[in-house]
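hey so u asked for the seq, here:
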Amino acid sequence: MDRFYLLTPALVLLAIFLIAFLIYCGLHAVGRAPEVSGVKHNQLLGPFMAGFLVWLIGPVERVLVGRVSPNVVTATSLVLCAVTGVVAALGHLPRAVWLYAFAGILDVLDGRLARAAGKPAPSGALFDSVSDRWGELFVFAGFAWFMHDSAWLLAVLAAIAGSMMVSYTRARAEGLGVTLAGGGLMQRAERIVLVAGGTLVAAWYGADPDNSDMVVPILGVTMLVCGVAASATAINRWIIAHRELARREAEPTLVRVDPPVVPAPAVTRAAAPARKVAGVLD
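ran it, structure tokens below
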């Protein structure tokens, strides 16, 4: 009973998610698929799950659009990530689950609000990207503190390194003019799902004193999977971008040669005939 009491917020959030997913699948099964727009999916979640997430937060998006600034939503997500790191460091894993889940939902919502309002400003995009990096650092720092007496701390460091390199490699490639279409298997959305899911499992076992010794190993494995998969994603992006840049460098450079300019021939005017004016030559 104590286990369910401690995990009530996280379990309620999970139940709402599962019920909504069943409804979404049912609507597709009967040929009444909801219409969603602006869906961005990745290789792991796919277009179906991405469409479901957009449909799930659709009511909230319609309420907030035009009323709340996307930057406010981004800042709120950053604050929730910071709070997640603090509660994780203190060992309150059930709270960390639903706090990080809400932060992830807001991370999806801010960009959609900006596009729906017709205000996808570069300053907002910069604020969103930098906030995402700080948010992940806050969360991973909390788990690092929680496991600082364990060898699993190395797994948290691997997760931090892999997550940062995924974002940096993409930003550097785009700065050099290379657009990475694929993106890899462990982008930010996948990392949020993985870390929140692993924390939920760890919190479930941690609520039972007889199984509390399994909490750190479960979190450690979660961080290890996150670190390995994120590093593989970053390396894959690195290879793709390097090949594209090398291909461009190998292409022959076409030099435009303008034809020589030939000066136009000078025009010589004939001398005007002499005129008699009162018998005098001019």
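The CA atoms of residues 210 and 278 lie 136 Å apart. Confidence is low (pLDDT under 50) at residues 277-282.
lmk if thats what u needed
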